[in-house]
């Protein structure tokens, strides 16, 4: 990914900062297992938790992790400390990454479906991007989350090798899958396709309303990925459908793409509603096919699409040319300016004007450091204007500029100019983002 590509991908992370998925009731259906859950506190003392808002840097990363596992019975809500079903194990291990401002509990109904089908699912609560913390959630910490997932996997495999405990002998360490929704889908993309953090032990993945986004140094390689399934709604206002469709069309790995017709951002991880059973069955069978070599599950994949509700593009056969049709919109002459753009002082309001953007979309405006490798960690999200309605494709708004630290950089007269980042409709296309330099007074 080019330096500019690393910067324009910020738009998606910004959009996710104001979207939270609500937990929904689990869909009805037959299940092979009941669901148990334990909570473990894993501490990685080899990596720091960076400064975030009023929260100081910490010398370690603490990951409170809910571990869901099969028990005797038939589905239902997770039961704390329930006796595991060891007779039918060991089971594949899937690490699930939650979305921005969410927690593992947000997805408990979806996770329960995976467990009832015969998987152990570990869901870490990320230290900065999760909800329920003393400080506001920080989307920029997504750059550290792929390593969190790999660390949690190692810890859980270690527990399964103990002689006793609820996970003893329960996990097939070679059947390692990952899944994630929204910001967790971005985490998953890093784990399966980015040079910074790809974990080659992963055998299959599910990207739920996710997309590629900046990860600092290194690039994405979509032609060398493990088998993966994408689930995405056509009306996702935070993560454009077309962006992940382009990734799917570029990839060569066995893959599938389940489109939720008219689905919003939460539709990719919601087990209830018209699309819920189709989404759950598709993800369950994809993991069964590629974590357990279940040929019958692979053959069932096309059967899960529901006409008018979901549509599946199946490219699981080697060398498949099946692709997602993408309707390219008209060529746009995008322009953006900031006034004033020099002689600025901290706290000053500047006016951002744009034209030639996508009518009926949204616009994202935020001040960022000149270091494009930082992703959202290099942007002032607190004062940013995110997902602002843009009915006509042109308009203006005001934003307060920061003089001083922005990410790892300093925005002032003595350092390279910072930028105002203006993005059209959360698109990842390089031409959809305009960077306007701003300069501060001496």
Q: Which properties best describe this structure?
A:
disordered N terminus; 442 residues; single chain; alpha/beta; 19 strands
Describe this structure as you would to a colleague.
- The chain has 442 residues and is an alpha/beta fold.
- The protein contains eight helices and 19 strands.
- It has helices spanning 3-8, 10-16, 108-116, 145-160, 183-193, 241-250, 276-291, 295-300, and strands at 34-44, 61-71, 79-80, 91-97, 120-125, 171-181, 204-208, 228-233, 255-260, 310-315, 335-339, 349-355, 361-368, 385-390, 395-400, 404-406, 409-411, 418-424, 433-438.
- The strands form four sheets. It has a ten-stranded mixed β-sheet with strand order 3-1-2-5-4-6-7-8-9-10, sandwiched between helices.
- α4 packs across α5 (183-193).
- The longest helix has 16 residues, at 145-160.
- It is globular.
